[in-house]
Amino acid sequence: MKVWMAILIGILCWQSSVWAVCPAWSPARAQEEISRLQQQIKQWDDDYWKEGKSEVEDGVYDQLSARLTQWQRCFGSEPRDVMMPPLNGAVMHPVAHTGVRKMVDKNALSLWMRE
């Protein structure tokens, strides 16, 4: 029974992506909306990777990224993979590594890294 439920859920999830509704936009409006959303996501990516700031919640970011991909598929545009921008100079990591600051000195850090 569990196997059949898993198969049914898998089919429903797959079908839901196939049945996604495309907006009834003209090609010009579609390009404008896609471009606007691409620019916003690019700004969030730059803020995250270069400044270490997250200006949007993960769930919202994921939802809008999925929407962009769907719109690109609807209007014949090739979805692009999100890549980390090239980094120059010292860049803070987006997630603070607070445990490293607790080391007494470089030797303690070296020992901790060997463990």
Automatic annotation (TrEMBL):
Q: What is this protein called?
A: ATP-dependent DNA ligase
**This enzyme's EC code(s):** 6.5.1.2
Gene of this entry: ligB
Give the signal peptide range.
1-20
Q: Which domain of life is it from?
A: Bacteria
* Cited SUPFAM superfamilies: DNA ligase/mRNA capping enzyme, catalytic domain
Which lineage? Bacteria, Pseudomonadati, Pseudomonadota, Gammaproteobacteria, Enterobacterales
Q: Which GO terms describe its molecular function?
A: DNA ligase (NAD+) activity
Q: What are the UniProt keywords, alphabetically?
A: Ligase, Signal
Cross-referenced Gene3D superfamilies: Helix hairpin bin (1.10.287.610)
